[in-house]
């Protein structure tokens, strides 16, 4: 099945290529052929925008050959040929060459698409160490605004550093060009371009490689894309440049808002092409929600040059193919795939949780807390964070009153793990079964115990909360909550039951991350041989099915209730949560990203299209209808970029309608 709602334009995507072509110094004909061949390769994979290095037509290291008129004339003629091919291939191309203007030579970037739309000269000319740019070129900073080329094949073409290229058919795509040293300057031109609306910043570069420079360059490009809330595409000259004094590695990169999307292999003599899809909807959302960006004003005016962005082939979504986007979309956006980064994140989140709880304990001068322990993931993480807080404050762990409250659905596995965990961690243990109290409650309200409905389940959750609250009053403590971010998003909690506490220590942690944090604790906090029993219990808790244990067990004592079979897989819901809340994407975009990330049922741990739509509908329905629970949420620490506190990141009316979002899901289901 295909649909116009799944074109790259509809999804806010632009496919770009950064190219380091094979090159011969001063051989314009060879270089032009290499550039055009790379353009064809980029067109074959549906690229819309292609970037080449600084002085790519002639080579950057021509030296005093730039004083030769023939080289300058041949470069201009080559640009005509490249421009013609760009039109034939339906590409927008930025290419570097030397251009004479009013008797001066400039190091330039030309933007072409079948028409030469404009020429941008280099602003900052390095003239130290191996660089001699000022020997040949004039700075673009000296060019008056509003200028045009006056002679030759470029006559009448806009010329100057005041140009932005705006896609008429995709308003979010606004392209700015700078050249090599411009990025390394104290005030890069791309800063002003971004403030004037530039979302796709291109850098044509010839940056020689030295020991350690690639790391610095990579971080510089990532940071500039983050500072400008933009995409930053960098095309670097390669080893075909002269190696008389330095070597050029061809370190081309594509970055977006601080993240590196693609990076070339350095020191390759053959043409290197890297491709990625830029998400301009994502950038627009970031800018709209960044108050510093919204308050800033570009210090100079830009001329906006219109052009048509080539359309890519319509995205096909079939029963066997869902790889529609040329960028990595992780299945678990909250959980880094890199193990070292994951461990680092776990440590930082754990410290934030503990520090938040420490502040609350210090503020109210509390030395005791009460926490319910089920033997499941969430209560385990909350207990571990509480242990860290007490240890750092120098408070005895006996001040942590941990209570397990077995009920109708409690399994021997979770019960045993709860008892073992409390005993091994040295907290004050209490066991208070709730069965008799709930039986009495059912009699009081005249509820049939054989009717296992929401009343049956919620009565148990509220009984547990009542016990925790009353004991906290009795001993002068406060209740530490255990619910996580994913449960909050779905409203998968009992109002005025597990929904309530005095401090919700897990409220910023999504379910997909909780188990990794517990595993990290087992392998780091309790890695010593003396803690082997604690580590073993924690690993078993991680392996336990997720369940509220509110329905009676079967005759063999097994579970009859697993959360993910009822509400849906948490890996999908956390994926939806990330893109709906963090970036404000519409259902069609979230669906397309999910198809790309999770594939089809034929993929291991994959989901079919219908499954993804089914659970996406559940997510939107619950997210809207359950806002009233989040509106009354207790305090708790934000730990990541997605949070749902009604006092912080998420201010949503409790009675907002989901009709618009559900209607789009209906449309997706009909395709």
Question: What does this 3D model show about the protein?
Answer:
This protein is of the alpha/beta class and 671 residues long. It folds into two domains: 4-307, Carbon-nitrogen hydrolase (Nitrilase/N-carbamoyl-D-aminoacid amidohydrolase), CATH 3.60.110.10; 339-670, HUPs (Rossmann fold), CATH 3.40.50. The protein contains 22 helices and 20 strands. The strands form four sheets. A seven-stranded mixed sheet has the order 13-12-10-8-7-6-15. Helix 9 crosses helix 15 (511-525), helix 15 runs antiparallel to helix 16 and helix 20 (609-625) runs antiparallel to helix 22 (659-670). The longest helix is centred in the middle third of the chain and has 26 residues, at 339-364. The protein starts with 12 loop residues before the first strand and ends with a helix. The model has no long low-confidence stretch (mean pLDDT 92).
Q: What's the name of the CATH homologous superfamily of the largest domain?
A: HUPs
Helicity, as a percent range = 25-40%
Number of DSSP strands? 20
User: Low-confidence stretches at least 5 residues in length (pLDDT < 50)?
Assistant: none
The CATH class of the largest domain is identified as Alpha Beta
Based on the structure given, which CATH architecture of the largest domain is correct?
Answer: 3-Layer(aba) Sandwich
Mean pLDDT across every amino acid position: 92
- What's the shape? elongated
Q: Fill in the CATH topology of the largest domain.
A: Rossmann fold
Helix run count: 22
Largest sheet: 7 strands, mixed
State Rg: 30 Å
Give the termini distance in whole angstroms: 7 Å
Give the helix/strand class.
Answer: alpha/beta
Biggest sheet, strands in spatial order?
Answer: 13-12-10-8-7-6-15
User: How many separate domains?
Assistant: 2
